[in-house]
Write a structure and sequence with these properties.
58% helix, 15 helices, 8 strands, Serine Threonine Protein Phosphatase 5, Tetratricopeptide repeat, alpha+beta, Immunoglobulin-like, five-stranded antiparallel sheet
Length: 409
């Protein structure tokens, strides 16, 4: 605040100096002097002319003409004196003008400068350590909405001046996650991850933010981060929770139940969350049963594909599962195809007419078909190097066809 007032005083002083310089160096008004010099020159020239005219006998009363000429020369003297008397001192102009500059400058700042908001911003910024401790402590009394807004403002201010503070970015990202502000959360967590890519808390926060994104690539990146965290010596329960909810959203109910089961084993039956996890597992298993039942009632215009994988295959969590239906002779061009997140195995998917790829030719038009399944590791269907794949025996619509992914290109 002191720096601000010093700066404003300096600016006002500069403005006053800019006013004083032209007043101090103002040129003297020499119009009167120039007029006097001109009149004297004209007077002398006229006297010379009168002398010549008198010698030539052209002038009868030379003295009268000289008297008139002198009188005309003296006519300007009262005006000059009057002008001298009306001269204004530079200080008489400078002092009121300087007062006006100071009054207008600070008056307009008080009126339009939002001094109350600036003061509140400075108080909030100074209160950042206390607000941060309250948030991180997780006290019984939760922070109010106003306190969260103050903390966000203080963090943004600090990060503006200290952009390499990974802890600040992590804290800002967590606040944004609590407020469901996906854009701010993702940007803040990405900055924290850029500064500390090996920090497990940062990785988890970044994965959580990416998981909220509607973009499929962001979600795949989040799964990759979470899968990497599973391999650590200590795994935060939130990692399994995120993986479980993600699997449930993708209708991978077997995977969701498995992750929730791991959480149960980690916390033990005495934990208050144990029963909640039990209900979640039951819900996933019920949905899995419904899906299996639907698979057993496949329409005559669709085909169920039961997919298993070789024990040697290790799929990257960012990979995709591509399932395609071909004519029974194994023609390379698929009649229908679908792409899914890699998920967990074994799993079952269903292809029908909505997955048809060629106009005028539907999956339901086939008398017989075979299924190919491939784990696409790089997201580019035109490249196959390193991908795992498998294909089925010929089958018919309405059947459940089994495919084992056990070969690698």
């Amino acid at each position: 605040m002191t720096l601000f007032w010093i700066s404003t005083v300096a600016l006002v002083v500069v403005a006053c100096l800019m006013l004083a310089i032209p007043l101090r160096s103002k040129k003297a008004n020499i119009d009167a002097q120039l007029r006097d010099d001109l009149n004297k020159a004209l007077y002398k020239d006229r006297l010379s002319e009168l002398a010549i005219e008198d010698d030539e006998g052209l002038v009868e009363n030379q003295q009268d003409l000289v008297s008139d000429l002198k009188q005309s020369l003296l006519d300007d003297i009262p005006k000059q004196e009057k002008q001298a008397q009306s001269h204004v001192s530079p200080m008489a102009v400078f002092i009121p003008s300087a007062i006006l500059i100071v009054g207008l400058s600070y008056g307009m700042y008080v009126t339009f400068g939002a001094t109350d908001k600036v003061k509140n911003w400075q108080e909030v910024s100074a209160n950042l350590p206390e607000l941060s401790k309250k948030l991180m402590a997780g006290s019984a009394e939760p922070m109010t909405e106003d306190e969260m807004q103050d903390l966000t403002l203080a963090l943004r201010t600090r990060l503006h001046y200290q952009p390499d503070d990974s802890t600040g970015w992590l804290l800002l990202g967590r606040i944004a996650l609590a407020n469901r502000d996906v854009t701010t959360a993702t940007d803040a967590m990405e900055n924290a991850y850029r500064l500390e890519p090996s920090n497990t808390d940062v990785q988890l926060g970044f994965a959580q933010a990416l998981m909220m994104s509607p973009d499929e690539m962001d979600q795949n990146r989040a799964r990759g981060l979470l899968t990497g965290l599973i391999k650590e010596d200590y795994v935060d329960l939130r990692v399994f929770s995120l993986l479980a909810f993600d699997a449930f959203e993708r209708e991978d109910f077997a995977g969701a139940a498995r992750y929730w089961g791991i959480m149960q084993r980690l916390i033990g039956p005495d934990d208050s969350r144990y029963e909640m996890l039990t209900r979640s597992i039951e819900s996933a298993e019920a949905r899995l049963g419904e899906t299996s039942k639907k698979m057993g009632q496949i329409s005559d215009n669709a085909v169920a594909v039961s997919i298993t994988v070789s024990p040697e295959m290790a799929a990257n969590p960012t990979s995709f599962l591509i399932v395609s239906a071909h004519t029974a002779d194994g023609a390379p061009m698929p009649v229908a195809a679908a792409r899914y997140p890699v998920g967990t195995f074994p799993r079952t998917v269903v292809l029908d007419d909505k997955d048809s790829m060629m106009e005028g030719r539907k999956l339901s038009d086939l008398d017989g078909l075979m299924i190919r399944a491939r784990i696409d590791s790089d997201g580019n269907v035109s490249t196959r190097e390193g991908d795992w794949y498998g294909e089925s025996q010929p089958g018919k619509l309405g059947d459940t066809i089994e495919v084992n992914i056990n070969q690698q290109y």
